[in-house]
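In this supplementary section we document a worked example of the pipeline. Step one takes a protein sequence of length 177 as its only input; no multiple sequence alignment statistics are reported here. Step two produces a three-dimensional model, which step three serialises into structure tokens for compact storage. The input and output of this example are shown verbatim.
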Amino acid sequence: MFHFSNIVRTKGDPRIVDSGTSLARPEDRLARALGWFSIGLGLAELFAPRRVTQTLGMEGQETLVRAFGAREIVSGIMSLSVDKNAGLWARVGGDGLDAAALFSALTPDNPKKGNVALALLMIGGIAMLDYRAAQETRPKRPSPGARRRLYPDRSGFPSGLAAVRDRARQLTNGVRS
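The serialised model returned by step three reads:
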């Protein structure tokens, strides 16, 4: 990818010869991949619900599929945000809703129940990835036995608060040093 950026560089700019290793942790990369997957799936559900319902034998449920698509897009955007954990847990909850909707289509009279079963398997696998990513990106808290650092005696001023007040008084009285 860095080769493309060399094309737009002006004369005299240094060329990018090699890119370094990524600083993103594996769980962050997984969250990012799941976020983009969610957005892509949501767009497909939002703009092609009839195709989805025909594939699953769920004709007449296009509104539900569109709603699920909007939910996927929102949770995907949240998974790409700074607070990715909330988006990943939204994806886990959405996987449960998807599975419940698909179980309702797993009836003996559905000619496409094989597709429904395959979709349920795929959702199960993705749900495991979503759950793992949500667990790994949860905010880290100190252990209950950890000693908390308290700084009530620190003012943030190296010479102390009294020295800062004195200097402020000198400046407001017009004395400059």
